[in-house]
Amino acid sequence: MARTGLVLWFEEADWRDKKLLGGKGASLAQMTQIGLPVPPGFIITTEACRKFYSSRKAEMDELERQLRGNPPPAVRDEIIKKIWALIDQCDLPAGLMEDVREHMQELERRTGKKFGAADGIPLLVSVRSGAALSMPGMMDTVLNLGLNDNSVQALAKATNNEWFAYDAYRRFIQMFARIVLALDEKPFNDAFDRKSEQFAREAETTYKDELDAIRKLYPEYTPRLDAQPPKDIAPRLWARSLELIKELVGEYKDLVRKMWGEFPQDPYVQLELAIRAVFRSWMNPRAIFYRIANNITPDMADCTAVNVVTMVFGNMGWDSGTGVYFTRDQSTGEDRPYGEFLPNAQGEDVVAGIRTPLGLDELKKRMPEVYNQLIEAGKKLEQVNKDVMDIEFTVERGKLYFLQNRPAKMTPLARVRSAVEMVKEGLLTKEEALLKVDPEQVRRLLYPTIDPKVKATPIAKGLPASPGAASGQVVFNPDDAVEWAKQGKKVILVRVETKPDDVHGFYAAQGVLTSRGGMTSHAAIVARAIGKPAVVGAEAIKIDYDSKTFTVNGVTVKEGDWVTIDGNSGSVYLGELPTVTPELGGWLDELLKWADEERRLGVRANADVPEDAMMARKFGAEGIGLLRIERMFRKPERLEALRRVILAADDKEREAHMKELADMIKPDFKEMLDIMDGKPVVIRLIDPPLHEFLPSSEELLAQIYDLREQREKAQASGDAAKVKELDQKIAELQGLYNRVKALQEANPMMGHRGVRVGVTYPVIYYYLTRAMAEAAAELIKEGKRPVLEIMVPQVSDVNEIRFVKNNAILPALSDVEKEYGVKLNVKIGTMIETVRAALTASEIAKEVDFFSFGTNDLTQATFSFSRDDVENKFMNQYLEKGILANDPFDTVDVKGVGRLVEIATKEGKEANPKLEVGVCGEHGGDPASINFFHGAGVDYVSASPFRVPVARLAAAQAAVKEKLGIRGAVGE
Ligand code: ADP
Ligand code: MG
Ligand code: MG
């Protein structure tokens, strides 16, 4: 026995080892071992495929790496040619073919069939690809292998059906030519079409009587050369089609001879070539690009197995057929078998969608026995695999065979529903159900989609930057959006691109459409953060702000016209299309309730405005982890007041203006604390560089220039009063200009901002704290339970915290407590967003009640990357060239930033056991990062409201994985 260990029977392979067997092989082994009818066969493992490639692996890896850089088509084709040339030089592992031959001989014994012989029952096999991860349709499979000029006659005798035998032969030659010999298939298709048309013509004329007789019994019958006419009803038609098929077989063999060489008659030569071809199909361009697009790494799937499976025939007549069966409805998740069945057909016909298949209910009517057996097997496979299954089956003369099973691909809704229902059925534990659902899928469930029943053609396509569908009237600037929204209109904000100053327009609009920018453009990030649908970078749209129109492919859309955008697909439509919010029926709620029972991490929301806070509560946030007050300064009178604070000549003046400003924003604090009644609200003291609140120096210069011109004119016309008035204005602006210039910084994000403002102008921090404290005090007096937590940004030294506490925050709190006669219990905390703060956490922890990692800034500081510049200039290349595995602004960088998080959390908690630790950067909503934070001992994460459910589930998954000892995605 020449056993290499690379070839395993379905009976003996350990079906849990998908990496070795590939998913398809594992499923065949599994079904065999649980007693379902599977045609006998064996698996050549992925290990054999790795050995096949091993001598050329380094070169091939390098070529594949070049493909990852997404080269232009011409270069790409060159690279692929090189890869295939290398494959031609690869050898099958030593002894493999001997081993396979022995298995084939054993298969002959087991089935009582003969491989490639003219006598007896012929053994035909399929040679099927299958990697550890399902890559549907990406690799190759050869059916009916073993047919040659001899065995085709044996097959005809054995089945007593010559038509069937020659049809199989015809199919085999064509498939072999295309897949194994890599010949152009067009001449084969052309030859088939010519013959098939000839047959149809003759059927409608010469054999009309027989055709009518068939149609009476089988209305779905159409005369084609690949469907066998029932011999008993239409003997002449049957004989004629057989003749034509035989001619076709001859033509096919001629084609092969011309394009390659004599068609191989030795079945073992066929088999060896087919095995090589299946191995090669792992490096098919489409397979390579599928792996790149889906981020499939070698530790997930490395090479394909080859499954050699005895053929069963769904095309042996009308009591045969082939189909696929989903154990539950893939789109709704409802526990209802769903599937398709094609009578008198072979597998490839369903997959390729050549003919219209029947529903399962029809199968039930025609073959009730088979149907029941199928459903029963489905239940069993669900039980063993604990998942909704997608099953391939074939019926040969009334007998059912299983050919493959795999977990079904489902919509997010179906995922959630089936997971929850499987718990109720006792199929899954709650923990298992929680692991079934991808947290990102949950997010998609919260948004409306365009009603799938509506057929509409988009007028433009952009990037699906923020999910959800929305309709509204077009407006072109953010102030109009606010104005129109006030009048109760629904609007879509359309911009070339957006800036921070446009954000009020986002809130007013139903959705945002831009003609420029990518998935990380400002519009995309903000829209996702606040949960508004957005399509960005729809470049075909030409916007003209002056005429308030945009044009796209000859269509002009004016301000006020209705459009619908679909942030799920990136499509833009004319008019108002109906949208639907997926009907959850409480399944998601239920799943998230279980998530809450499992998770250790708390989940809060980042929310700056009441809409966000209400959304956060609705989605189950346990508090606000970050309230940025900067948005509160957007209203013109407040911005004016803040500017006066910044530009004040002395402390006294500054204090007066600050007091005024504090009174203006107090109601906003009150509203937010009230909405979150009983739950903590972390309010961050002013953070950005002060100049962000001032007009730009260029703008001021332009104004000054303008006034000077007016003054000139006034002087020329002798209007002295006007001159005087203008002089005064000019002087004022000049003063402002000088202040703005003085405040200008070379590197504002690393300049005079955050706590540094609190240190230089304690009065600002004092009054901001007062405003928050007064808001809380008033609520307490009204019988409410506000939970205020105050957070200091940009700290790098404990003395900064000490200073602002002693000179601003504590005095403000005690003043308010005294004045209102209430006890406030305010927690004081700090952001950890500078490297030094993380490294001196043990000192800082003694001065505060909580830390909150601002992982965006911390990532910038740790890498010395400026986020905006990085994303536009080189991040893509870093990812393509494999310098970074992930964008550290999407998923936390475990080695650097993560290490700082771990150090600061550990040392902070040692120094102050009561210290509470949160994360409020965007990473707080990223599942992989959440998994890391769980392990790092963080107490809670804070995410944008729409990410709260995602975070709840991700946090639960982290806890469940820890409990069950499953390794997570990041950092382990
Ligand atoms: P894919 O991975 O593209 O689905 P498969 O290897 O599953 O490729 O095969 C393609 C089609 O051929 C499927 O419909 C399958 O059910 C059918 N098929 C494969 N092997 C056999 C067999 N031994 N007998 C009958 N049909 C088969
Ligand atoms: Mg398949
Ligand atoms: Mg920050």
Automatic annotation (TrEMBL):
Signal peptide: none
Coiled-coil regions listed in the entry: 697-746
Annotated InterPro entries: ATP_grasp_subdomain_1, PEP-util_enz_mobile_dom, PEP_util_AS, PEP_util_C, Phosphohistidine_dom_sf, PPDK_AMP/ATP-bd, Pyruvate_phosphate_dikinase, Pyrv/PenolPyrv_kinase-like_dom
Segments forming domain PEP-utilising enzyme mobile: 489-570
Occurrences of domain Pyruvate phosphate dikinase AMP/ATP-binding (ranges): 19-357, 372-425
SUPFAM superfamilies assigned: Glutathione synthetase ATP-binding domain-like, Phosphoenolpyruvate/pyruvate domain, Phosphohistidine domain
Keywords, alphabetical: ATP-binding, Coiled coil, Kinase, Magnesium, Metal-binding, Nucleotide-binding, Pyruvate, Transferase
GO molecular function ontology, one term from the record: metal ion binding
Tagged with keyword Iron-sulfur: no
Ranges for domain PEP-utilising enzyme C-terminal: 589-959
Cofactor: Mg(2+)
Residues the record lists as binding Mg(2+): 833, 857
The protein's Enzyme Commission number: 2.7.9.1
Pfam families the record matches: PEP-utilizers, PEP-utilizers_C, PPDK_N
Enzymatic class: transferase
Family according to the record: Belongs to the PEP-utilizing enzyme family.
PANTHER family: PHOSPHOENOLPYRUVATE DIKINASE-RELATED, PYRUVATE, PHOSPHATE DIKINASE 1, CHLOROPLASTIC
Protein's UniProt name: pyruvate, phosphate dikinase
Organism: Acidilobus saccharovorans (strain DSM 16705 / JCM 18335 / VKM B-2471 / 345-15)
